[in-house]
Write a structure and sequence with these properties.
It comes from Bradyrhizobium japonicum. The structure is a single chain. The chain has ten helices and eleven strands. Strands 1-3-8-5-6-11 form a six-stranded mixed beta sheet, covered by helices on one side. The chain folds into two domains: 2-147, Sandwich (Jelly Rolls), CATH 2.60.120.810; 160-267, Homeodomain-like (Arc Repressor Mutant, subunit A, Orthogonal Bundle). The longest helix is centred in the last third of the chain and has 19 residues, at 208-226. Helix 4 (163-174) crosses helix 5, helix 7 (208-226) packs parallel to helix 10 (259-267) and helix 8 packs across helix 9 (244-255). The protein is α+β, with helices and mostly antiparallel strands and 283 residues long. Strand 5 (53-57) and strand 6 form a beta hairpin.
């Protein structure tokens, strides 16, 4: 597994570590780019105020639209697929500093963060080149406080590890618009429908039906985030829902919003305004 060294956008102190224990990296990426599986020695908060990305870890696949960020612990294998043009700002946290955090145990696994207006502004302000050391420390502390109460699993699609169940999951994810019958899937992966149903429940903590719904909603999030012209009616039909209300109800159950509310919020997400140059090394 590739271990990537942290590319430094701006060192807050010359010793490459700020008093707050954070490195700041700014980078824009084009739609369609993939960052292959790798890991870092530091923990990361990856935020794209513009664009949607997909982060895959051994535990599952996270859809990260503009009002979300993703926390990646140090040493965790992960890859990124950029589903739209991305304006990415990443905070890399020194592990020795992070371990002194009161709630460090909650930062040892990956999760998606719902980015509140306050967290959004704190992240953007960190990239202001005029920051003093004191302001940087305060902004990092504010971001950490918001981080601890912002976890959101709505866009997470857990991936099973058992080989047959994993193959079945990938068949669904490769074609989330299909109407996947568990009996047919079970035959394709060489097991019974009863066994496959039990495996999905054990491996993902979701029933097969709920897991498929999560995968379809994730596909809808991806489409809404990358295609401004798609209608809710088109999406409902393509994803196999009998009606727009049925699709909207399923979408709200997973995300807490209707598809229309989600699309409106994604379009109106704030752009980055922090004063910084763009580094030329890959994050």
């Amino acid at each position: 597994m590739t271990v990537l060294e942290t590319p430094i956008l701006r060192e807050v102190r010359s010793n490459h570590r700020s008093p707050a224990g954070v490195h700041l990296v700014a980078r824009d990426y084009p739609k369609g780019m993939r960052i292959d599986p790798h890991l870092h020695r530091e923990a990361q908060l990856i935020y794209a105020a513009k664009g949607t990305m997909q982060v895959t870890t051994p535990g599952g696949r996270w859809l990260v639209p503009p009002d979300r960020a993703v926390w990646v612990p140090a040493g965790l294998d992960h890859s990124l697929d950029l589903l739209a043009d991305i304006e990415m700002r990443t905070l890399y946290f020194d592990l020795s500093w992070l371990k002194r955090e009161q709630r460090y145990e909650g930062l040892t696994k990956e999760f998606v963060v719902r980015v509140s207006p306050l967290l959004n502004q704190a992240i953007l302000a960190l990239f202001d080149a005029r920051n003093t050391e004191e302001r940087t420390e305060l902004l990092v502390r504010l971001a950490m406080l918001e981080l601890h109460q912002a976890e959101d699993s709505a866009t997470f699609v857990p991936l099973p590890h058992e080989p047959r169940c994993r193959r079945a999951a990938m068949i669904v994810l490769d074609d989330p618009t299909g109407l996947h019958d568990i009996d047919t899937l079970a035959r394709e992966v060489g097991t019974s429908a009863r066994t496959l149903s039990r495996l999905f429940s054990t491996e993902t903590q979701l029933s097969f039906k709920s897991w498929c719904q999560r995968a379809r909603v994730a596909a809808a999030i991806q489409r809404l985030s990358t295609d401004a012209n798609v209608s809710v009616k088109q999406l409902a039909t393509q994803l196999g829902y009998a009606s727009v209300p049925a699709f909207s109800a399923a979408f709200r159950q997973v995300t807490g919003r209707t598809p229309t509310e989600f699309a409106t919020h994604s379009v109106s997400s704030p752009r980055l305004t922090g004063r910084s140059s763009t580094p030329r090394r890959r994050s």
